[in-house]
Amino acid sequence: MLNKIRTQSRRWKKKVRGAVFVEYLLLLTIIGIGAIAGLTTLRSALINELMDLANAINAINS
To answer: pTM of the entire structure?
Structure first.
C-alpha cells in the first residue's frame, strides 16, 4: 500500500513539473512577443525622430 502511494506521489510530481514547464513556456512566449512588438515600435519612433532631425538640418542648410 505504501509503495502504491509513493508511486502515485511520484507520478503526480512529474505531472506538476510538466505543467509548470508549460506555464513558463507560455509566459516566455508572451514576453518574447511583447518584446518584439515593443522594439518594433521603438524602432519606428526613432526613425521618425531622426527623419524630423534630418528635415530640420536640411531646412537650415537650404
So the answer is: 0.62
